[in-house]
């Protein structure tokens, strides 16, 4: 009966000019780029190879100057907008923070339906890097959404009604989901986040029709006394020491997946260790498999096939969860089936996707933790000084990475990969002591203030970002577009010899794919950090992107972006000859206020020290190391926010915006100590200017 109702609703949508039946068949048979109808965007990377390339060329380098806004939709939150929309037929599906899913007429912007999964607001404090979501999946009349609280939900594509829902995580632990699900051959794959909260990473596959779990593969070994799930975990355990499982180990699959149907392999990018500090996680050393790795699994069974570890013994938050791209390239005179990735650690890797053999690796940005990759062993040539102790050392890239979640793209026409690159630096130091029962990262974000100030000054002076066109065959940069600050968005490449990217300058821009020449740019009142898409409806090509500043970079860098004047976050859709106009910018925007004179410090040194400890354990991931930056820089609190501090922290008065109550973790006295510490930090940095 449920199936009959769904078919009737789908037929109604078809009669209303909705999704042609052939689209769902195209998704089911999408084995490569050519199998997907050019006007559609049916998966987060458009196709299973995750190239984020569209062959559409109605909008091209010759006429893109005529591009204008076709329609837009306001997004009702000022948190990070990282999602890639989907387009099937003439329906555009989008998702916003808190995993709200909306369907629009892709040509007009008329809203067709809206679904709110009602994520409990307490999960806002579990997400290390904003309450973001990066996209959706589609299969056989269903739209799949993975929620921040760990659910995987299948919605009826016609009306947004839930068809099934499964809980994929243990909600008593620190798991969240921010990545987009993928559907391969009727299997919905989803990972999770939470390594900073001390969890054990894994990826799961579910039946797309019923939601039944088909298999689960853990990325790091568990407690040996409980036995190992498979031989891969038993081998991995030999690369760990101590009682690593007490803190979960990490290795969460919080973003990237890719699939080669010809080989039957799904490729999984794994994350950083838990805790960050290597000595407290695996005191006897070891590579700590399968942290910071690309792992190939059998799509049917989830069995391990091969892995390549980009950062053995990871200790700098150098995840390998960044997007992976499959392509066939002529290298050394022969065709190679490759998988490419630019993870956080600063290298661009080309691997044989059948075997995991390293083909090549070169740095895309200045790095100090390693001098290169040894092609004989496939291992990085580490700088021993980067293995930090209790005295802070400067390491590049910093935890934000040389390339983060912002997707890169590959053009088969130019043979180039287009990468949002950042040059970053960070002070790393171990904590003097470590409590495995806490959510501490084992690192110290305070102390040795003179060294930290020197490193912060260097980082501020030298951090930057650019869009790079990278030749994966020669491992060289062909061109670059520099930006004043890091923080520009994901990338789209098209058959019109174009590369689209949102910029940190609150614009949306297009560049020639072959030369990097800027050929179009439009102010859009916010930063489109998400990756754009393009699609065609009724013979008209459109380009769409979510614009809304936030996410991980905003968490750690916001203090450097006080000059950003940000308007309403929006879904923006463009076409040639588009004549829609954005509303005028409001008198007050989401921009960070100037640092106001702080209240006088009245606390004792002991209260400030306690507040510093509690801040590091509970607040620093969202509000910046040493209260410097963050999604909201707490040195910049207004008098009203100071007055309401306890109501916000303990009462949860701003929970709807992601700031959940900490009343179960902090007593009133502890909350007051954190407040005293923030007042102390504001006074330390206040210059009176």
How does this model look, in words?
The structure is a single chain. With 689 residues, this protein is α+β, with helices and mostly antiparallel strands. 15% of the residues lie in helices and 30% in strands. It is built from eleven helices and 39 strands. It has a five-stranded mixed β-sheet with strand order 1-33-34-35-36, with no helix packed on it. A hairpin with a 3-residue loop joins strand 33 and strand 34 (498-503). Residues 1-17 have low confidence and may be disordered.
What kind of oligomer do you see? single chain
Overall spatial form:
globular
Strand order of the largest sheet: 1-33-34-35-36
Helical amount among residues, as a percent range? 10-25%
Largest sheet: 5 strands, mixed
Q: Which range does the strand content fall in?
A: 25-35%
Q: Residue ranges: pLDDT <50 for 5 or more in a row?
A: 1-17
Alpha-carbon distance between the termini?
69 Å
Mean pLDDT: 90
Instruction: Supply Rg.
Output: 24 Å
| Global structural class | alpha+beta
Care to count the β-strands?
A: 39
Query: Number of helical runs?
Result: 11
Structure at a glance:
The chain has 689 residues and is α+β, with helices and mostly antiparallel strands. Helix content is 15%, strand content 30%. The chain contains 11 helices and 39 strands.
């Amino acid at each position: 009966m449920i199936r009959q109702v769904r078919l009737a609703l789908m037929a109604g949508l078809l009669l209303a000019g909705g999704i042609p039946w052939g689209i769902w068949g195209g998704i089911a048979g999408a084995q490569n780029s050519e199998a997907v109808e050019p006007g559609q965007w049916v998966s987060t990377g458009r196709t299973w190879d995750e190239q984020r390339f569209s062959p559409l060329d109605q909008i091209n380098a010759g006429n893109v100057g005529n591009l204008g806004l076709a329609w837009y939709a306001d997004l009702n939150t000022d948190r990070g907008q990282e999602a890639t929309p989907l387009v099937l037929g003439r329906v555009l599906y989008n998702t916003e923070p808190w995993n709200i899913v909306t369907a629009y007429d892709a040509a007009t912007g008329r809203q067709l339906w809206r679904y709110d999964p009602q994520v409990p607001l307490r999960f806002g404090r579990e997400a290390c890097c904003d309450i973001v979501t990066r996209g959706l999946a589609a299969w056989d009349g269903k739209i799949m959404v993975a929620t921040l609280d760990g659910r995987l939900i299948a919605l009826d594509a016609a009306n947004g009604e839930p068809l099934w829902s499964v809980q994929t995580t243990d909600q008593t632990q620190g798991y969240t989901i921010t990545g987009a699900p993928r559907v391969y051959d009727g299997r919905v794959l989803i990972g999770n986040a939470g390594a900073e909260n001390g969890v054990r990473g894994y990826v799961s596959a579910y039946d797309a029709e019923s939601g039944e779990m088909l298999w689960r593969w853990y990325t790091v070994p568990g407690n040996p006394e409980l036995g190992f799930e498979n031989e891969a975990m038993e081998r991995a355990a030999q690369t760990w020491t101590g009682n690593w499982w007490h803190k979960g180990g990490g290795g969460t699959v919080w973003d990237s997946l890719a699939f080669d149907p010809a080989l039957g392999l799904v490729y999984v990018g794994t994350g950083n260790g838990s805790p960050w500090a290597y000595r407290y996680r695996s005191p006897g050393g070891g590579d700590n498999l399968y942290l910071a790795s690309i792992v190939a699994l059998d799509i049917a069974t989830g069995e391990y096939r091969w892995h390549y570890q980009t950062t053995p013994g990871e200790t700098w938050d150098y995840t390998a969860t960044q997007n992976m791209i499959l392509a066939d390239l002529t290298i050394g005179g022969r065709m190679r089936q490759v998988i490419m990735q630019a993870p956080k650690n600063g290298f661009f890797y080309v691997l044989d996707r059948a075997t995991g053999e390293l083909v090549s690796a070169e740095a895309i940005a200045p790095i100090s933790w390693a001098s290169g990759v040894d092609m004989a062993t496939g291992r990085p040539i580490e700088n021993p000084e980067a293995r930090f102790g209790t005295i802070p050392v400067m390491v590049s890239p910093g935890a934000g990475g040389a390339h983060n979640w912002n997707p890169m793209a590959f053009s088969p026409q130019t043979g180039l990969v287009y990468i949002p690159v950042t040059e970053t630096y960070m002070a790393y130091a171990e904590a003097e002591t470590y409590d495995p029962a806490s959510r501490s990262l084992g690192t110290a974000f305070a102390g040795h203030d003179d060294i930290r100030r020197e490193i912060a000054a260097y980082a501020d002076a030298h951090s930057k970002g650019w869009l790079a066109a990278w030749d994966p065959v020669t491992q060289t940069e062909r061109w670059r577009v520099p930006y004043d600050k890091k923080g520009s968005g994901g990338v789209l490449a098209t058959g019109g010899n174009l590369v689209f990217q949102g910029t940190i300058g609150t614009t949306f821009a297009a560049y020639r794919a072959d030369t990097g020449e800027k050929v179009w740019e439009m102010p859009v009142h916010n930063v489109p950090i998400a990756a754009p898409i393009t699609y065609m409806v009724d013979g008209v090509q459109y380009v769409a992107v979510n614009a809304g500043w936030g996410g991980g970079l905003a968490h750690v860098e916001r203090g450097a972006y006080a000059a950003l004047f940000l308007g309403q976050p929006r879904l923006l859709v463009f076409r040639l000859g588009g004549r829609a106009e954005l509303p005028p910018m409001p008198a007050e925007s989401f921009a960070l206020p100037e640092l106001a004179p702080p209240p006088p410090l009245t606390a004792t040194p002991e209260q400030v020290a306690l507040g510093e400890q509690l801040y590091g354990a509970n607040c620093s991931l969202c509000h910046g190391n040493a209260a410097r930056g963050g999604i909201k820089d707490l040195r910049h609190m207004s008098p009203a926010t100071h007055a309401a501090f306890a109501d916000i922290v303990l009462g949860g008065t701003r929970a709807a915006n992601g700031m959940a109550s900490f009343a179960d973790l902090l007593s009133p006295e502890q909350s007051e100590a954190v407040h005293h510490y923030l007042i102390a930090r504001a006074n330390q940095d206040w210059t009176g200017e």
